[in-house]
Amino acid sequence: MVHAAFSSAAAIRTAIDTGLTGKRSTAVHEVQPLDVATDATRHLEVTVRPFQGDTGPIDAAVIELVDVTQAERDRRTHARTRQRLDKAAVLNARSPRA
What is the pTM assigned to this prediction? Predict the structure, then answer.
């Protein structure tokens, strides 16, 4: 599932390299279903953070995946609704008053 959350192997490598330098990165990725009969696109929040072992230096990166599909769907629905309301407000403002 981790490899599916990134658009390319280069994106995975970059996120891990960032973690190994001591920096944390977080991004939301759209993941297409492996089963083409399913139209259940998922959204995963991927956080890569450095891991410092007992030896002192950063020696690994931790990859955390959180399914944020419902939150992303809600955000997109809200954005579409806001656009429609804004468009309606403009049209209403242009219409002649009785």
Answer: 0.67
